[in-house]
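Archive entry: two folds, one per protein. Generate the first.
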Amino acid sequence: MPGKNGGGVSITSASLGERVRTARKALGMSQAQLAGDELTKGFISQLESGSVRPSIRSLQIIASRLGKPLDHFLGDEVLSTEKRVAFHRLAAEAAAEQSEWDLVREYAQNGLAEGPDTGDRAALLWLLARSEAAARRFERTFELVDEALGMITVAAEPQVVAQLLVLRGYAYAESAQLVAATEAYESARDVMEKYEVLEPRLRSRLLVALGTMYRRLKRTSKAITSYELALSTASRESELMLAGRGYMGMAATHYDSGELDSAIAHYQRALELFRRVSDIGLELQALQSISIVQFENEQLPAAKISAERAMGRALEVGDAHWAAVVEVTLARLALKEGGADDALRMAKHAEKILSETDDKIQQADALGATGAALEALGRTADADRAYRASLDLYTKVDDLADRSGMAAEYARVLKSRGQIDEAFDMLELARGGVTRR
């Protein structure tokens, strides 16, 4: 059956040149008219005969003059589809570097809609799963991770497999399934070691996450080893972040102009810089985690040195959020040294900053430190309010593991006051139950 616009060839099977010629003739337009000022009649003639392949920019000009969407001409062009998939994947990766999760979701979904090959599809599913994890939709995260792992082999895509396992570990950790999280992280580490995956930031983040699981499971020596390895792996070239962001802006500009090859090249350059950039957050997280381990093991002088080192680094780079996180640890240390007033001042200041940055988990920790300081000052009613606010925040974000730890701490406070029934309620909450209000 002839195509709708004549010529006897359907749109789905017509060559790019035939599509252009069919659309041009349907409008009664000459090759010179289609060329306009930007192109030449000879170029249009060569395009229609199939002897040249236009750039995305040139084809966008042609599509606009013919009143057709770009996809009308690219729908079954294999190379163009690959380029579009590459663009969406790179754009999603770059957006993830900036924690712009709505953009990550949009680009990943657009890439998946192109019908990518197995490797790209798994990578796009990983990016989509990251956006779901950022929104704390962990059941959906697990579904996407399982789907991606089911379509690739570790031998063919070891880095993607490792990334998926790390994300699975994160989802387990945030769901308070610490043993399952540790197993997922250890599997990711084993994949990276066996297949020599040398991505430094992935390795550093994995080591910090694994160290945190070891710490929570009271495997202290392993925790310290993991944190120290993470610190030694992290790069320190922080000035490259601005350049990376600049390349991202240039990539978006090229894409808007239809220059897909240039857009992809600029996103690739941005990602290269992001991967080299000093991950200050990672460095600070490792330093802070080391100080927490030392604090929990009553190594107070060492914990103070680590915390002060982290604070100095946070102030050096102007990171108010991480400075507040570290300040909570310093407040706990001040309380151990008998400085309840200083501890209260630091904890309340940290809680204010963490509230402004909308980090509810760390804010809840700061409220717990505030409660402990108030209790030491004999202000029991105020301490109760701070502890309850902390527990409510942990419940709100479904952080059951940290809520359990805070409930156990509050139970000890209540027991020391002789409030046995209330202490029992808190112990029940610490075990995962509910408490009478």
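Generate the second and append.
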Amino acid sequence: MRNTPVDYQLAKNIIEGSGISKIGTASIRELVKVVNLIEEKSGLKFIRMEMGVPGLEPAEIAIKAEIEALRNGVASKYPMIEGVQVLKNEISRFIKLFLNVNVNPEGCIPTVGSVMGSMAAFLIGNRTDRNKEGTLFLDPGFPVHKQQSLFLGHPYRSFDIFDYRGDKLKRKLESYLESGKVSTILYSNPNNPSWICLTENELEIIGQLAEKYDVIVIEDLAYFAMDFRVDMSVPGKAPFQPTVAKFTDKYIILISSSKCFSYAGQRVGMMVVSDKVFHRSFPDLKRYFTSDKFGHSLIFGALYALSAGVCHSAQYGLAAILKAVNDGRYNFVNTVREYGRMARMMKDLFLKYGFHIVYDKDLDIPVADGFYFTVAYPGFNGADLIEELLFYGVSAISLDITGSKRTEGIRACVSQVSEDQMPVLEERLKRFNKDHAVKENNFK
């Protein structure tokens, strides 16, 4: 029996008993469940890098606002589906101050996390034209988005954008759009999992092609202003968070409060629909909804059916954060810079013990240190590396499930790892390297 930091046979039995055919390609939540069980049964605390949950405390101003709202009786009242007006107003201000884009508050809608926002966007955006089919994903990306497409029965297309940066992007995008089958384009920026950041030139290409082929761009800004190479923390002052909204009015922006505001537990995100898309009529929407207006169908068709509104008090909590940020009283970017510092420390340890960075360049400069990074180890594909690391008390996810073509890699999230765990991480990576550096093909 092998001698590993985690009892080998115990972990193996749990993995085999999970019912998951290949643990290295399990979904994020499936892997979380397995790791929780191994921790419980073994008594060994893992280095948890599999799930992108915030590791910082939420702003006190939000908590106080929620408490006040609850004391004012909101818990007994249904919230309006389109959101409370004070939050809608602050979202609109936030978009102007940090993206330098104007959007009417009516198109600024709270959602139950940005995952619900993407679901609603697919439900409406992919039904605007009976001759189109579904979404083009600029991979790698958040695996749940494709899961949503499959759940909805929407065909999708995808490609790994890393090989098509800069001017190459236009030719590649157009090769998909000219089919006439694409309704929506979705990407994240900064990117989950690679942490590459699209440039203004690339966003302009996406915007121009969205105009040419009449496609709605769904821009996932879950990691808003978290490219720490650039300071985007001052409201109303450049540089602003890069956005496709500068180059097209065919867009929906998804913003999570989970990462940049450390407000994950309240499940309140933001969906921002351009004024033009919100008011546009799509006759084919009448196949499913009572109105052909995009905004009406979004609110009273999709969002009503999905949740009938967002937690009332959480909306007031988010509104309080946004007001403080918009007024310049709370610098949310400075708060989350901690993730960049942790990423640098963790990367250094992985590199020290035989790993290498998979997505290492952002065009011609090194990828920023942020919420995620990607690594690989010689002789392993990503799925097998995930499984092998479990026996060493380290968990992450395979790039396989993100749509990446770099199947040798894994994604590591920094948010659940504390600085006092660095010696433990180093010891486990050192042990892993010692066990595999010479006989690296033994466990493929």
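Annotation attached to the second fold: The chain has two domains: 8-56+332-436, 60-326. The domain at 8-56+332-436 is CATH 3.90.1150.100 (Aspartate Aminotransferase, domain 1).
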